[in-house]
Amino acid sequence: MKILMIGDVVGRPGRKILLNDLDNIKKELGADFVVANLENASAGRGITENNLKQLLNTPIDVITMGNHVFNQKETINYIDNYPMMVRPLNYPDHVPGKAFTVVERNGKKIGVLNISGQTFMPDMDSPFDLSEKYMDEFKNQCDILLIDFHGEATSEKIAYGFKYDGVASAIVGTHTHVQTADNRVLPNGTAYITDIGMTGPINSVIGTKTDIVLEKFRTKIPQRFEVELAYPWKFNAVLIDIDDETGMAKDIKRINKVYDKTVLEGEYRNE
Ligand SMILES: [Fe+2]
Ligand SMILES: [Fe+2]
Question: Which member of 11, 161, 244, 247 has the lowest number of beta carbons within 10 Å of its beta carbon?
Answer without folding.
Answer: 244
